[in-house]
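Hi everyone, sorry if this is the wrong subforum. Our group has a chain we'd like a structural model of before ordering constructs, and none of us has done structure prediction before. Sequence below.
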Amino acid sequence: MTALGGDILKGNTLTLILSLLEEQPMYGFQISREIERRSQGTLRFREGLLYPALHQLEREGLVEAEWQSSSQGPRRKYYQLTSRGKREAEKQRKRWLAFSGAVNRVLGGRPIG
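Answer:
Right subforum, don't worry. Here is the predicted structure as tokens:
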């Protein structure tokens, strides 16, 4: 499948990041690689999309960041959800499931391709 980007990805960036950070703290490059891996290459985050989104989540108090040493190179900034971020992740998941279910019903459940 072709990689998706643009408005589709921008509109769902925060939901994807929050969802991954629910599982464990991650650093930026790790987040982008994990999204790409799980989507089988369909979703690709560029730095120009990922880091502004992480900074926005941090400003909104949904994530907090901490620099940590790495045995594999320079220090890395790890992001983790705050309690408020956990609530927002759940809220965004519910919104996404309602939206995607509605879109699938409109499309008639037909496979694309």
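For your construct planning: The chain is about 60% helix and 15% strand. The first strand starts at residue 26 and ends at 27.
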